[in-house]
Every structure is written in structure tokens, then in C-alpha cells.
Amino acid sequence: MSLEDITALLHKLEHKNNRLKALVQKYKQSHHLQNALIQLSEQASSVAELTLLYPAIHDILQDYMPSKSFYVVLLNQFSNTLELSYFADEKDGISVPLNQDNNFIQGVTGYVFKQGKTTYFQGDEMQAAANKGLFKLLGTPAEHWVGVPVYREQSIIGVLVAQSYDKQQNYSEQQIELLEVMSLYLSTAIERVKKRELLESEVKIRTRALTQSNEALNLEVEQHKKTLARQHILFKISELATQTKHIDEVYQQVHEIIKSITYAENLYIALYDRETGWLNFPYCVDEYRDNTQPRPFAKGYSELVLRTEQTQLIDCTRAQKLLKSGEVERPGQVSDSNSATSWLGAPLKTAQGVIGLITCQAYNHKHIFNQDDFELITFVSHQIATVLQAHLAAQALKQSHQQLEFRVAEKTKEILQTNMHLQMQIEERKKIEQQLYHDAHHDPLTGLPNRSLFLTQLEKTLQHYQRYPEQQFAVLFIDLDKFKDINDQLGHQAGDQFLISVSESFSQCIREHDLLARLGGDEFVILLTHLTDRQQAEDVAKRLIELMKKPFCMKGICVQSGASVGITYSKTNYKHTDEIIRDADAAMYYAKNAGRSRFEFYHPLLSAGTSPYELETSHHLDSLPMHFRCSEIITLDEQHQSESLLEAFGEHPVLGSTSFEILKKFAADKAQQLEVELQLLTKACQQIKTAQLQMVLFPCSGLLLEKNEFQALCLTMQKHSITKQICLLFNEQEIRYASAVQISNLKMLSEQGYSIGLNDFAKDRCELNLLCDLNFDYLLLSSTFSKRVLQQQSFDLQLQGVLAITKIKQIKVIAKGPSILNYRALLDTHGLSLFIGRQHAISSTATLPADSSNEQILN
Q: How much is the pTM?
């Protein structure tokens, strides 16, 4: 091999060697970087708080680069200033950076923060940059200074700085790269430590809260245990009162009870005789005395309890004070070794006073009674005293009977006769008193409560309602119609019998806790309590009116009576019972003037001063101005449907703007009602054509389905030719009681192509057979039923039955009720999807013909 070849080979080997060295250096740098990141990750996972994380980062850096002087500055998000998080320096103390103005923002650290990129300065370069005004020099100038920005996502949150005061210790590109990588990972590590700090803080707070809650629960459990223990003790003592045991057995049982609650190895019961002034000890268990003889009242511990009538707890210290003060004197025969070291005595108090005491004592410091023992023995002493008093009285009575047995036997017959006579007198007197009370508070004819008792009960109910306004009540004022005819035709005796019969029948219409009273004559009142809805009062009134439709017959003569009922429902502005009776009475007179055999709720306008004559002449149906209101049928999201509900309203002088469904009760006769209804139907047909409505639901009464009236209805409908645009709604209650002719005519309407519907369905009960027997196109649920569906599960089950039938027969179901969105949303969850929307008037200037000069204007 030539020299040139050898030289070329050497150059080639040298090139490969240099390349290998570079690869080794690069691998070493990657290894250092990976090792540093692993150590940083381990520290971020293990340290408990940020103050420990920064020193850990500093230690890691010192293994790979000169970084004895190292600090971390982070941005405070609230003050928007740079604040020192960690500081370690060879020359400057911690006070130097903290005393600088503006928190590093004007120094080289702030310069790096603003530039947002890594910056490396040597001593001369830093001085030159400072002279140019790029930043201010803060603290001792460093020979080598490198600052790396710390980013979180796209935002800079601080600066990581390493500096050296030794010219020889400069920073290589690999070391700066390591510092940059550390800064990239620092924000993540800080976030992890912060989250762990927050989690640990929350755990501590939660643990503290649970500990406090547990302590409170334990305290409550202990209190509950004490209460149960005391209750158990009371039961045991109460059992002693009912057991016919000998008095000695009772003492032993009391001792056992006291043992179960405190130290009672030494216990005695003393009885005090006030007449003789002696103390007797009928029961004593003591380790030093087997027997305790009676003794006169002195100045011992027992006498202290009897004098103060309070429980006494005496230890050695208090015993010395009592002896020194002279309140207690110790008998000379009692030695110190036989004296109690802890003594607890409680008085036995009864209604007649203190009869004695019960005492527990301990010797030689075997037990020290505390405040719990004090409270327990005080607690049970009253019950024990009552039991002992009962047994002592029984024992004394038994002894007295034994002593006087012979004398009692001689006079037994006389005493028995005297007692029997006395007992008869007492019973008779009780009966007389009860009869006097009953007569003073009850009607002598019917036996019902009278006005006095009713007003008393009403006053209590009003006071209760003022405290608990959610518990509603109602008063029904009832006046019997044509009662004078009964008296005139059948006599006053028959009238009395009629009142008795009516009172018995009315009593069957109310609940046990309701009150029926007779005010006088033919006037009755009923107080209904525990109500949740006005409908309940209305149901009672309907039952009363239906009951009074039956004729009263006597002596072969039958007279038709009736009942006019006025109802007032509980209101928060009621302050006196007179106001309630007044309003119920006003509603009753209004019902009587409106046609009798009906009920009316009180309305404030009834108290406006209108005379009865004016009411009677102004409330008739043919004299009331009429107008229409249209309600759109909508879905839950208020999407309008093709159907609308058209209702007639009249301007009543007392009730104001009122639905025709209510006003039709004011018709003088059927002819008048028919005339007005046909006029309203005619006008409704005109309105439908004028407004070009697609389908209108129009309420009608069952009167139009009767034989002669049905022909007039058909003629009116044929005249206007809007078969596909109108649906005739009939009230569910009227159809329920309709005659065979009315049902037949209703079916005929459906067969002729007219749409029919059922209005106010399930107001008081749910008649599913109506839906099965007749072909209805629409079903309007009553607002009462809609509310009850949301309150009781049984009504939801009824609704599901209704929806099952209507789905099969393709009947559209529409819900009435409040138009709030929450209400509709709740009903939607029960399967209802169509609702009555808001009302609006339909304008028109046409009028209907009316009697004399009056006109009914349908606006």
C-alpha cells in the first residue's frame, strides 16, 4: 500500500471518528435532556406544593449546567405584574429583588417577558443593551445571563432565569436548549402541582366538614340514647305505679332502677312525717349499717335536702364547708372511716309537698357522683315520689280498712245506700248540666248546632286559617225555597217535620269533621274545612240542591221545595266571622234572586249596594250585552293549529264580563235561552265566514238537542252551510244526564257530517263510556281535571285511559288551564300535546234583535 493510500485512509478514519464523536455528543445531550425531563415529571408528581417544586427544578439544572444563581418569575393574573416565585443567588440576597420597583418589569427579566423569546447576555453585552435603554440593570451584574420565557398554550406566563458570575462558566447551546425544554415543561408541572394542592385543600376541607358532621351526629346519637334511656326508666317506674305489689317490693324495684343508672351499692329511702317531725327509714341497704332506726329531725345531710327541697351533691370538700358553717352537724357516734366520701340525695316531691328523700352514698372513694348523676336522680325522683305516694296511700288505706273493718261492716248498708243516692244525684246533675249545655248550643227542633256554636267554631277555623293559610275552608249559607208554602198548605207541624227531614238529609252530604248548623227558620249554614279546591265546596252545594229537588209529601199532599245556596271561600282579608256570614248571605240572596234552586259564589260586586229589585230586573239573559272571544289551539311550542275556540261572553251588572256557560242559568225560561243561543249560533257562523276561520269549536247547551229545539238547530246550521268549519261542543255533565231523545239527536248530528265535541270533560268524574258510545271529534279536558292530573297519580291513570280511547277513535284531546309554559310542559309529559292559548276579541258591529228597545251587541 502506497503512502498516499495510507494518508487517504487516515483522513477517512479521522472523518468517521469526528462524526462518531458528534453523534455521541448529540446522544449524550438527548440523554441529559430526557433524564432531566423524567426527573422534573417525577418531582411534579411527588411534591406536595409549588414551594418545593422550584428547588427540585434547581437541583435538576445544577446537574447539567452552571446554575447556582437561578430564579423563576411568574405573571400575577390579578395584578398583571411579574412576581418572584423562586430565588437563589450567589451574591444577592432575597431582599435585593424584592425591593426593586415594578417587580422585574423594567429589568432584563421584563425584557425577555416582553420579547417572548430566549435571550443570552454576556457581561459586556448586557451593559451595552442597558446603555441603549432596552432595560434597567437590577442587582449585581452577571457575567453570563440567560432568560427563557415560560409559555402556557399561546400565552407567556413568566420567565425562567439562570446566571453565572464567573466568566469561565458560560452557557452552551445544549445547556440553553435544556433550559428551554425545561421551561416548556415547567408550566405543565406547575399546573399539575397547583391542581394537586387544590385537591389536597379540598380534601382537607371536606375531611374537616365530615369530621365536624360526624362529631355532631355522634353528639346527637348520644343525646338520643340518653333520652331513650330516660324514657325506658320512666316506663319502668310507671309500671310500678300500676302493679299491686307490697311496699317492700316496690322499694327493692326502685333500688334496682337506680342501680341501672348510677352507683347505688349504698342506698336508703327516708320518709318525713311533718306532724311528728321524725324521719323514718323504711328501706336501707348499706355496707356499714344493716338497719337505720327512726330519728327526730336534726341537722344531717338528709335534713338539708328536706329543708331546701333540692337535690344535694356532697363531696369531702363541701362536707367540711357545711360542717364549718354549721348547716350540718355530724352525730358523735359516726367515725370518719364510716363517713361517706360522696353523697347524693334527692327530695321526693308530690303535689302535697316533700314526703321524703332517696339517697345514694359511696365510701372510701369507690365512686364520685357527678353532674350527670345529679341530673338523673333529680329526673327520676319526681316519678318515684308519685309511685311511693300512691303505694303509701294504698297501704295506709289498707291498714285503715283493716282497723275499721268491724265498724265499717256495721254501717256498710247505710253507707252503700247513701253513696248510691249521692251517685244518682251526681249522675242526674251531670245529665242536667250536659242537657243545659246542649240546649244552649243546639237547635231544639232539629238537634243541629245553633248560631252560637257555629260562630264559635267558625271563629276557631278563621284563627287557624290565619296561621295556616294553605288549609282552606268555605261557608255555605242555605235558604230553603217555598218553605212558606209548606207551612201554609200542610201546617206548621208539617213544616217542622220538613225541617227535621232536611237537616237529616243535609247531614248525609257532608264529612264527619264538617259542621252543619241551623241559624233559624229555614236558614242553614255549613262550615267545610280542610279544603284544597273551590270545586269541593261546589260539589257539596250541588248535592244539596239535587237532594232538595225531591218533593216533600205529607197527608197526601206533595209540595216541591228547593235550596238557594250562597258560598264564600276562605280569603286572607277576612278578619271577623261577621264578614264571612255577610258574604255568604249576600251570595245566597243573589242565588235566590237569580232563579232559586241554584248556588252562587260570593263576588265583591255583590256588596256594591245594588238593591234586590235592581238585581232581579237586570240579570236576565235577554238584557245582557254579548260579545265573542276567540282562543287559539296551540302546541307546547306555541305553534297555532287550524282549530280555534269561540266563546260567548255577556256583560253582567254584578259579575262583570262572564261566560255564557254561566249566564245561561239566568234565562227566564227555556224559550228565552233557546232564542238567545240560536242568535249566538247565527252570529258565530257569520263571524266564521267573515274571519275565514278553518275550524271553530263552539260551546252549545244540551237544550238544543231536545225534540223541538233540535229542529231549530238543524235549520240554523243548514242556513249558513259551514258544516266543515264548525264543531258543536256540548257540556259533559249535560250529556251524562241527557235523555234518550237528546242522545239520538247528538248521534244524528254526527251522521249528518257535523263535527261534535265534549266540553269540560272529567270536571267531577271521568265517564269513559261517553267516549266509547258516541263519535266525538274533539275532547276538551276541564281545568280542574288538568290540575288534578299533576297532583295525584290516580288522575294520571284516568288520563291514560282517556288517551288510549281517544287515540283509537281518533279524537283530538285539548287541555284547558293556566297558559303558563311550565304548566303545559308538565301536562305534555303526561301525553297531552294540544292546549287552549290566549284569548282575543273578534270585532264586529252587527247586533242581535232584542226585546223592546234593548240590543245585544256581539263584539
A: 0.40
